[in-house]
Amino acid sequence: MKNSLWLLESEPLNLQLLVNFLTKSGFEVTPFSSAKNLNTALAQGDAPHLLIMNAAPDGQGLANLRHLRQQGLEFPIFMMSSSSDPIDLIVALEVGADDFLIKPINPRELLARIQACLRRLHRPTKAVAAPERFRFGPFVLDLTERSLLKGKKPIHLTTREFELLKVLVSHPREPLDRQTLAQMVMGRPLADNDRSLDVQVARLRKIIEVEPNQPRFLQTVWGSGYVFTPGK
């Protein structure tokens, strides 16, 4: 069964080039030229394994992304942008993007990132008698159900946030440097000045910490990376 990719791109030439490349790479690609058509498909109950969407210079792309995440949709979303401003990357990740690519897109890099994301998404869970769970504070992270609960309340996580938390809680009290963590979470090393991992850590702290600026669980190892401390 082919993985389904949805592609939202308002520029017809870019849309067709990406559709052709990704189709030849073995994916089932559904193109959309407008957010309205995309939302109509979602309203009908359809959903992709992964969505790639244009950020758009007028900020509408970020508004579309925010709308999707507010609906509780958790499939991975990659953002494409012609802007190389680090602030744009940070904002996209804060809104809920799983990855960010700068135009013009290198097709081979796009393919590598898609494959790495889908490998993590489809990674088989070890067969165990009971769900593999990690408890810390008021939270329960269930790796089998791919869910985070605070008491009985489900907490929304994007795919990237879940992967990051899974890696950290699976290595309690073990400091992980940024490059190792990026490889384990994103399937690729960090480029120079790439702060995407730090943005995701900051987002995760806002979710699980009472005081994100004074984290109890997700602590910084200065000059290196991060460490998860579950407490007693």
State the assembly state of the protein chains. single chain
Shape: globular
> Which class of secondary structure composition applies to the elements?
alpha/beta
The chain-level mean pLDDT equals 87
CATH class of the largest domain: Alpha Beta
Task: Compile the SSE list and pairings.
Elements: E1 4-8, H1 12-24, E2 28-32, H2 35-43, E3 50-54, H3 60-70, E4 77-81, H4 86-95, E5 99-102, H5 107-121, E6 133-136, E7 139-142, E8 147-150, E9 153-155, H6 159-169, E10 176-177, H7 178-186, H8 196-208, E11 218-221, E12 225-228
Parallel strand pairs: 1-2, 1-3, 3-4, 4-5
Antiparallel strand pairs: 6-7, 7-8, 8-9, 10-12, 11-12
Structure description:
The chain has helices at 12-24, 35-43, 60-70, 86-95, 107-121, 159-169, 178-186, 196-208; strands spanning 4-8, 28-32, 50-54, 77-81, 99-102, 133-136, 139-142, 147-150, 153-155, 176-177, 218-221, 225-228. The protein has 232 residues and is of the alpha/beta class. The chain folds into 2 domains: 4-121, Response regulator (Rossmann fold); 155-228, Winged helix-like DNA-binding domain superfamily/Winged helix DNA-binding domain (Arc Repressor Mutant, subunit A), CATH 1.10.10.10. The strands form 3 sheets. The chain has a 5-stranded parallel beta sheet with strand order 2-1-3-4-5, sandwiched between helices. A 4-stranded antiparallel beta sheet has the order 6-7-8-9, with helices on one face. Helix 4 (86-95) packs parallel to helix 8, helix 6 crosses helix 7 and helix 6 packs across helix 8. The termini are far apart.
